[in-house]
Amino acid sequence: AEAANLPPLTEAQKNKLRHLSVVTLAAKIKCIPYSVLLEQLQLKNVRQLEDLVIEAVYADVLRGSLDQRNQRLEVDYSIGRDIRREELSTITRTLQEWCQGCEVVLSGIEEQVSRANQHKEQQLALKQQIESEVANLKKTIKVTTAAAAAATSQDPEQHLTELREPAPGTNQRQASKKTSKAKGLRGSTKIWSKSN
Question: From which residue to which does any coiled coil extend (predicted)?
Fold first, then answer.
């Protein structure tokens, strides 16, 4: 608009302005058609456009790729430009939406943390209940075995010893029975031989 009042631009200055124009377009559109770029940058052919975009990528002004089949520039990243007054409302709205999204995520995380804490408390209570039941069962088993031992009123080792060695009266009876049987057998053989 004020080209008549300004000195003529060199080719490097024109390329710098074109790079900044691509950055401005990239802030609005992530896939910029070649036709829009050619019109905005006032270039004559696609070859000049692609060379300019490659220069911008090497200068780290933007990152992206040229889609020659679909005739468009796909922008992944671009540097920022100075903020204009008319853009402040858009930036404010974007930041408010971001803050609201953060609050939603934060409330979701807090809800999950409270659920996890409740689950942990339930598991601890269940573990304590199981441990108390196990302790009660151990006490019951000890009391039962003690009662069984008291009912027999003897030490288990003593009981085993008595089973191995019979009482003294039982030994004498068995011995006398054996001797009497032996005497009877001898006598019967004598009687048998006399009768022959």
Answer: 120-147
By DSSP bridging, strand 31-33 and strand 62-67 are: unpaired
Residue 194 forms part of a structural domain:
no
For the stretch 133-149, pLDDT in tens is: 999 999 999 888 887 77
> In 67-167, which ranges are continuous DSSP H helix?
88-152, 156-164
The CA R_g of the chain, rounded to the nearest whole Å, is 53
pLDDT digits (tens, 9 = 90+) for 72-131: 889 898 888 888 888 889 889 999 999 999 999 999 999 999 999 999 999 999 999 999
| Helix axes 34-41 and 46-58, enclosed angle (nearest 10) | 90
* Sequence-ordered list of residues with C-beta below 8 angstroms from that of 148, at least 6 positions apart, any chain: none
CA 164 centroid distance within chain: 63
- Look at residues 44, 37, 102 and name the one whose alpha carbon lies nearest to residue 72: 37
For the chain, how many residues are written? 196
Choosing from 42, 76, 110, the residue where a domain stops is 76
CA gap 143, 149 in Å, rounded: 10
- Encode 177-189: b = buried (16+ Cβ within 10 Å), e = exposed: eeeeeeeeeeeee
Whether residue 27 is contained in a domain is answered as: yes
Q: Are 33 and 72 in contact (CB under 8 A)?
A: yes
